Amino acid sequence: MQASRGTRTKTRNLLKKSVRARGLSPITKGLQTFEAGEKVNIIIDPSIHKGMPFSRFHGLTGVVIGERGSAYEVSVKDGNKTKMVVARPEHLVRTKIDN
Hints:
single chain; mainly beta; 5-stranded antiparallel β-sheet; 5 strands
């Protein structure tokens, strides 16, 4: 039988929380806001399935382009291409170093 190819295939270790970080994340992660032009890191929170970007973009840094409903559009370099990722704020973290 052919293996299923869902959106979370081959992510057993990639989308795994540490032992002390298990469970639901704080509500403030979902309430954070970002401005257009702000740099963010895409860190997928596996406990929240809604608005989760594809696993290829986990750990990448991008620039917020705008809003789409309650999610944000983030411009990310994937190889030589620039792609737009739509992710909810639970999966985005403000970068600590601005270049």
